[in-house]
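User: For documentation purposes, I need each entry recorded in a consistent format: the amino acid sequence on its own, followed directly by the corresponding structure tokens. There are two entries in this batch. Please keep commentary to a minimum and don't merge the entries.

Assistant: Recorded as requested. Entry 1:
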Amino acid sequence: MRPVTRLLRDELRDRIIAEAREVLCKLGVEIHNEPVLRMLSDHGAKVDKETCYARFTEDIIDKALATAPHSFKLFDVLGNETHNFQGDNVYFTPGSTSINILDNESGEMRRPMTADYIRYVKLTGGLQHIASQSTALIPADVHENIADSYRLYLSLLYGEKPVVTGAFTVASFEIMKDLQIAVRGTEPALRAQPLTIFSCCPTSPLKWSDVTSQNLVDCARWSIPVEFISMPLSGFMAPVTLVGSLVQQTAETLSGVVISQLVSPGHAMLYGGSPAVFDMRFQTTPMGAVETMMLDCANSEIGKYLGMPTQGYTAFSDAKQLDAQAGLESSMGATLAALSGINSISGPGMLDFESCQSLEKLVVDNEICGMTYRLLRGIEPREDFPAIRLQEELRQKKHMLTSAHTRRYLREEITFPGPAIDRADSERWRKDGQLTLRERAAREVTRIVAAYKPSRLSEDAKRELTRLMRREAQRYGMANLPAQDE
């Protein structure tokens, strides 16, 4: 039996959804995109052009929910299926868009460079329990106007796993779409085998900017799956109560569902978000707070009830180092998210309120993800009955080390973590150098990166990726792309 966590009673979940719909229909949502407002008006919404508010109708919401797909698949660079977002299938991806990296040698946070990003891609490719890449770091050695596309370029050039990404300007979408076509070969092939998921982020409370709404429209037109990242802050930009925040997040996400489905009925989506409580003592948004995790899990319950696969930003920490707090918050978030059946769990590797990525932490989080997968398999009998047979064998042999039953089920029953996790006794630990968790994780980063094998993407496709990226960089005054020392 697969263990499951639920936080909302059916009647509470239904009331939250009903209240969110009422908010959309009576108060509306602010949208700073004239074509989107015009489209909504054409479908019956009441639009105030001066305030940019659109008040939906129950009919618009119902039609959007009716066409929203219940599942979709994701494929890697080589065209192999890697994700099937349906039911309670769970996949982990690193946290996205960090402005800093934790430098293992100095122990300090610093701005990442191209070499850091390439190292990250190589590492992610070797982590068994991390199913996809994300555009996790923002390299500081390129023009800010190509920061979005450059990260995707490096991911597609060096890695094979699909990518969770996003465009933070209207202009960057075009090149990011072209990079994906370069990998797939044709536009129909990209539509048939999606390679990326784009994050589309409404602004709390109940607002879509011109950029984010246009990115959503563009993704829908090109059949590029999206994840909705609503970010209510309980007690600051949302009601302080978890229920009040959930009502707002549901309304914000439903508004994105409507826009997406009006543009392209059946457009693939993850019903997601990155909510947080607000710590008024420090004016921070603790992503490692248990209430933040509860919001993610409850939001997924709502999304699943509405018939959509789900996403959540959790499984990371607000700590500044790879320390006990990092382990506490990341493991609790990963476990609760997995037990809630969140389909796409974003966060491994992240520290400091979604602002810093640590490669060493990503290695440790990979082990946490592996533990959650074992938990999800639950407890099932494996030739354990009648019990007297195994007990007789134990009484006779005095141990079960060489038992056929042990050999048959050892690997299925017991998870053996990698070298980053210490399970040796203290004598052996001292003999092996008394390494700390950070030191063991750093060794694993070095080992995995050293074992990297170049992407099997065709050389023609790689050349086309570089041609497109170089042309885009030249538009912003960069004569050459940063050196890529492999």
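Entry 2:
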Amino acid sequence: MVRSLWTAATGMIAQQTNVDTIANNLANVNTVGYKAEVAEFKSLLYQTLQAKTTSANGEEKPIGAQVGLGVRNSAITSIFKDGNIYQSENDFAFALSGKGFFAVKGEDDNTYYTRNGNFGIAISNNGLALTDSDGRPVLDTNGKEIVFNKNLVATDIVVDEEGAFHYPDKDGKLQPLNVTIGVYQFNNPAGLDKMGDSLYAQTNASGEVINEAKAKDITKSKLMHGYLEGSSVQVADEMVNLIVAQRAYEMNSKAIQASDEMLQQANQLRR
């Protein structure tokens, strides 16, 4: 069987995954805290047609003859660069600039990490809980759920530039609530497992979580209250990448068509 049929087929499959990745980026162009993803490729096995030391006259050759057998997707990598920052009217909106993540507690009691800081106050049996848009509790610098006394007025809770919460006393003076929103880092954020809902899970590839409030010798993230971080997707770049991927897909389909025509010519030789 002609190798080019299978080789071009791997190219079409790989480019389809590339288009899927680009489509996902464009679909999340307005998702808060979303990080653009890039499909990466690697070549498949090579078949040796002629060794370096082989020639028709038995002489040594400096270069052999190897033919590639196609391509496959090696990874889909999230690019963790800061998105555009824009102002929000939400009193509990937070944006991060840098390598940090917010931490939330999932329904399975596991900790997940996100760059989506569009939080709010939910009324629970324990009091007023700071949660994400899906009701998952946000964690503080000690890894505990952020819960305020149920007698407090949510609209009167104030957050400073460090993410610490305060509440006015009877005289109107702000008093600390001894709660600070947690920010965490990873040595290899690209190794985090994407869970959907803008959540990431820690893996062996990402390394151990680093608590910015307790770690030393790290560059801490900048927390901005009253702002949100937009998606890092650049529409113009994605459209260019889409055109390139589409042309690559077409060229691989042309290679299959050419291989098919070659097989037709070979079949007709016996007639």
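Summary note for entry 2:
The helical segments are 3-27, 235-268.
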